[in-house]
Specification:
- It is a single chain.
- With 601 residues, the protein is of the alpha+beta class.
- Among the domains are: 34-156, no CATH class; 410-505, Immunoglobulin-like, CATH 2.60.40; 510-599, no CATH class.
- 37% of the residues lie in helices and 20% in strands.
- Strands 19, 20, 21, 22, 23, 24, 25 and 26 form an 8-stranded antiparallel β-sheet that branches. A 7-stranded antiparallel β-sheet has the order 2-11-12-13-18-15-16, with no helix packed on it. Strands 1-9-10-14-17 form a 5-stranded mixed β-sheet, with no helix packed on it.
- A hairpin with a 2-residue loop joins strand 3 and strand 4 (211-212).
- Helix 2 (36-48) runs parallel beside helix 4, helix 3 (60-75) packs parallel to helix 16 (391-405) and helix 15 (323-340) crosses helix 16.
- The longest helix is centred in the first third of the chain and has 21 residues, at 136-156.
- The radius of gyration is 24 Å and the shape is globular.
- The model has no long low-confidence stretch (mean pLDDT 97).
Length: 601
Amino acid sequence: MEIKKNYAYLPNGAAQYEGVAHEYAQFILNKQLKDRTLWDKFVRVFEQKADVDDNGWRGEYFGKMMRGACLTYRYLPDAELYGILYDTVKNLLATQGEDGRITTYTKEAEFHGWDMWTRKYVLVGCMYFYGICKDEAFKAEILTALCRHVDYLISTVGEGKVCILDTSHWYGGLNSSSILEPIVELYRLTGKAEYLTFAEYVLHKGGCKGGNLLELAEQGEKMPYQYPEVKAYEMMSYFEGALAYYEVTGKARYLNIVEKFVDAVAKSDVTVIGCAGCTHELFDNSANKQTEEVADKVIMQETCVTVTWMRLLERLLRLTGKEKYANEIERSAYNALYGSVNIYGNQQYSAEEQRMLDGVPFDSYSPLVNQPRGIGIGGYKKFKEGGYYGCCACIGAAGTGLFPLIGAMETDGGVVLSGYHNGEIAYVTPIGQQAVLRVRGDYLGKGELTVKISLPKSEKFKITFRVPTWSKDAVAVVDGKTQGVSAGWFTVEKDWKDGEEVALFFHPAVEKIELNGKCAFVYGNLVLARDEQKEENIRTPISFEKFGGKLVITRIAPKAGETVRFELDTDMGRVLLTDYASCGKKWTEENARISVWFSQK
């Protein structure tokens, strides 16, 4: 039983955007994804069995970045990128052993460390490429290789064999259990019952030693940071597998469990910038801990967590159509994700090497209180032939590719606008006409935009507009008539004529958030921050007694690289606030600290 999703991707390249979402996707495409030398290194670690000596995770790099590359390709269908990805998958499959294994571990060392994790990412990367592959013969070759890969696995791991929770000494086997999602996807592609049986075995084991994560989420008596294992990224990946299982079986219990889990994470662990884990990359009640100042070079809020959170939300958004998931994706993208993009190519500090190294395209950690960026390289591993890479550098492209991809999607009888990026969206109407939706305005700044439609002849269909959770007194103008619209979705179903347009006004406002005696400021879904390179003393406490506690805000023109810029009047003088993603970007320069949370006098 295949569950139909509420929303589906438009055809590859259907949206042509401008602005920050497009610019970051294009930057990563050119800077990272078309680097053949890098892809060759990712394949070579399988030939070398490079993870044996240190129980490493280099084998994840291929699958993580391949997934991001394929999502980016769907938004930006670049012929050169496709050729590179095709060759890379071809080269990876050539490393397959006679027994079907594709891994960076030898047979003598298998099912320890991150071996299962590596095998998972072989599946993930190859199946994402399968989804964009134009060569039917090669698709068959990929599927045959993946089946051999998994057939060996399930001949060794499972009921009465090696327990999946014993295949890694990390996190109670949680990392190994996250193979659930690609196993379900392989079942979806092949229909082979043994793969579904193995997926059910993994589900039954509950994700980790010490407790069944699915049952804990279902019961709701504990929050995720109170579970027996609290590794955020791996846990969310496991729950994504449970969601995939629901999609192919229709067993509603698993959808309910995942939604409860996501609600719990949002409540207890997601911070104001849309990431989680203020203690390394662990769930730790970071929704409350986020105001704490930490010592220099203490890492927190990993980019892997940001992107995995976005991906889990995106899957729920397409499946359920609930606006709250779109809101959380937007918050993570415009703050934690885009803040992590290393657009200036800064060097980054390596704790392993105790020195600065040449930078990779994504920073790994996102500060909140008086800390700089660039203080660590997540998942750092060297290559035998020289150089290094990391987990966050590989996973980031899945975020920058995914976010513009879901800006416009198809739904029954129409198109849905989940995000508002200036540009043009090609849409094939229910009767087969080629329509174009032109989006223009200042969504992130003034919260105003128009959507104008072009099509050969009038036709009745639906356009659904997202009214953001943060919007204030939102209104829409349709057929010259103004009407108030509530947060959620606003659908217009009518006979659309060429040249008609809808205007939307969301009225964002700077708002003050208070927590643990500190305060932060948001503007729509943009978190505002103070930056030492923009003003001298970002640690000055804030108070508003002279203003009766009211916020006196002056909006001023943003400078290069910024989305918004405000001046806030306080008892101590004016404070400069700009969008978080633009702050601290030149972290190798002096005075590079930034803060989101401020002390109140």
